[in-house]
């Protein structure tokens, strides 16, 4: 027997034995692709925190249009930042005492396509201690402008609030920055139980970086939410030859227009590329900027009218 066939058979046998139900291909996929804790409500919950980074922080406490006061009275602002040079970064760290959560939220930008088209699409070696890991230079520059503020505040908060969970969220360019912030945090502190929920994230770094992100989060919440045909998760395209391709980290959660959710296969399940049955099934001519603006819990108007 050919070794490939033998391997397939072994894989098949292993998968059948781990599934108590009668095996059908359809049942297998449905079982693999549903994670009980992923619901549209859970996505909306984290989406509101990602969307709230588009609010005007100055009058957060009294603002009637702001998502954060409308939906999340129990969340208080601990830290905010806003940088414009050398690169754009804006966001907040909130504390929800009721849910015992600390949330780090990076704001996105409607100019995401400019950032992606920029010459800064080149990669830089980062983080320093992980040799062979490279990330998008423009995203790194943006994150670095906020790094000191964010890391100092998060570390102080987590020391002061034992037992609180820590979740990094962000939409668009904010999604890229929040992944970098999480990796940076895990380089300096214990990050068991830390969560990551991104919305419309572009590809951030090379395969080694993606694998490193996956290894940090283990079985924890690690959701890379993609809506329909959103164009941004398909960028930067994996065309650059040096020093490496752009590769996504796990785990894609694909939300379709009818709000149905697919929990896509992880690369640790033996898959090297993105799950072909999720957003990767969309062709280039279907990619959509409008889908990038619409995510559970994130208000389209806030995104469009942010500067
Ligand atoms: C933010 O959190 C730190 C650490 O717990 C605390 O010392 C500081 O007073 C907080 N700042 C605000 C504005 O709540």
From TrEMBL:
<dbReference type="InterPro" id="IPR002921">
    <property type="entry name" value="Fungal_lipase-type"/>
</dbReference>
<feature type="signal peptide">
    <location>
        <begin position="1"/>
        <end position="18"/>
    </location>
</feature>
<dbReference type="GO" id="GO:0006629">
    <property type="term" value="P:lipid metabolic process"/>
</dbReference>
<protein>
    <recommendedName>
        <fullName>Fungal lipase-type domain-containing protein</fullName>
    </recommendedName>
</protein>
<dbReference type="InterPro" id="IPR029058">
    <property type="entry name" value="AB_hydrolase_fold"/>
</dbReference>
<dbReference type="Pfam" id="PF01764">
    <property type="entry name" value="Lipase_3"/>
</dbReference>
<feature type="domain" description="Fungal lipase-type">
    <location>
        <begin position="103"/>
        <end position="237"/>
    </location>
</feature>
<dbReference type="InterPro" id="IPR051218">
    <property type="entry name" value="Sec_MonoDiacylglyc_Lipase"/>
</dbReference>
<keyword id="KW-0732">Signal</keyword>
